Amino acid sequence: MSLRTKDFDYHLPEELIASRPLPERADSRMMVIHRAEGRIEHRMFREFPEFVRESDLLALNDTKVIPARVFSDDGRVEMLCLDRLSPLEWRCLVRPGKRMKPGKAVSVGGIEGVVTEVFENGDRLIRWAAPVDLDRHGHLALPHYMGREDEISDRDRYQTVFAREEGAIAAPTAGLHFTPEMLDRLDHVFLTLHVGVGTFRPVSAEVVSDHIMHSEKFAVSAETARRVNDAERVIAVGTTVTRVLETLGRDATSTGKRIDETDASGATDIFIHPPYDFRVIGGLLTNFHLPQSTLIMLVSAFAGRDLVMEAYRKAVEERYRFYSYGDCMLIL
């Protein structure tokens, strides 16, 4: 029987949504799910290294969130830069879209941009007369469930301490808990997936398998691939890392290897939901996700839907903090 989107629903009291981060990154709580035993325990993230074996390898997403949300100088048009095709060309989500027809001009920081194309899905291609300084004129596109505008402090806290490759609209939130000191103690590698707006788009299909997944750009070095293959167990830090590694695992041609040991880049639209045979990862650190989202479906594919939904029930009962600035879950 096909799983339905409503099978991944749960009730979350609004006060459990974390709209701001804790004072210290590693002070988050951490639910630990032991898949083989079906056991759930409640710990703190600072205890995370206790669960990492010497032979394990952490894989982290080093994408860097850009202040991609800008407003026209007259305040009448909002633009979310989905993709910088070049310093002068942006693919944008625009509101209100009806105002921005081909040939329409808009100004940001005194720099004029013109709509040169309207894509089938309603995105706009805007060509600027000169590069727009996003650090000066842009805002972070915080998730809607935070219920607030971005603040200066978000420039630091809505960013992992290892972020280096610019291009994400949203943070790979499982990585927000790490401090440089903890990371120095753990064997790890980096890959890059630029988290896009599709992460927040709801699943509209009634049957899970009918959902069409969004696509996101990624890059993995041959050295990272080699180390992934050499590790006894790979612990993915986040669903973004999981999607990249499982995409490479699905496409691998090397006999006896988890993934091909070559530089790899492209885009993935892999949709991981139950049932799914994981080829690469053996552990997953992730935050708590929206009901009926593709992310909770991915987690359910890894740990089993019944166990995951029971874990979410307990998380609500135990007053965990949810979503981007919230607590985390380690699945082993």
What would you note in describing this structure?
The model has no long low-confidence stretch (mean pLDDT 96). This protein is globular. 17% of the residues lie in helices and 27% in strands. It is of the alpha/beta class and 332 residues long. It has seven helices and 17 strands. Helix 6 (294-303) packs across helix 7 (305-317).
Rounded to the nearest angstrom, the distance between the terminal CA atoms is 27 Å
Sheet bearing the most strands, described? Answer: 9 strands, mixed
CATH topology of the largest domain: QueA-like
Q: Would you list the SSEs in sequence order as H and E? A: EEEEEEEEEEHHEHEEHEHEEHHE
What CATH first level of the largest domain would be assigned?
A: Alpha Beta
Helix count from the secondary structure assignment: 7
What spatial order of strands do you see in the largest sheet? Answer: 2-1-17-16-14-3-12-13-15
Low-confidence stretches: none
User: Strand content of the residues, in percent?
Assistant: 25-35%
Tell me which CATH architecture of the largest domain applies here. Answer: 3-Layer(aba) Sandwich
Question: What's the topology here?
Answer:
Layout: E1 29-34, E2 39-44, E3 56-61, E4 63-65, E5 69-71, E6 78-86, E7 89-95, E8 105-108, E9 111-118, E10 124-128, H1 134-137, H2 154-157, E11 165-168, H3 180-184, E12 188-193, E13 216-220, H4 222-230, E14 233-237, H5 239-251, E15 264-268, E16 283-287, H6 294-303, H7 305-317, E17 328-331
Parallel strand pairs: 1-17, 3-12, 3-14, 4-11, 14-16
Antiparallel strand pairs: 1-2, 5-6, 6-7, 7-10, 8-9, 9-10, 12-13, 13-15, 16-17
Helix pairs in contact: 6-7
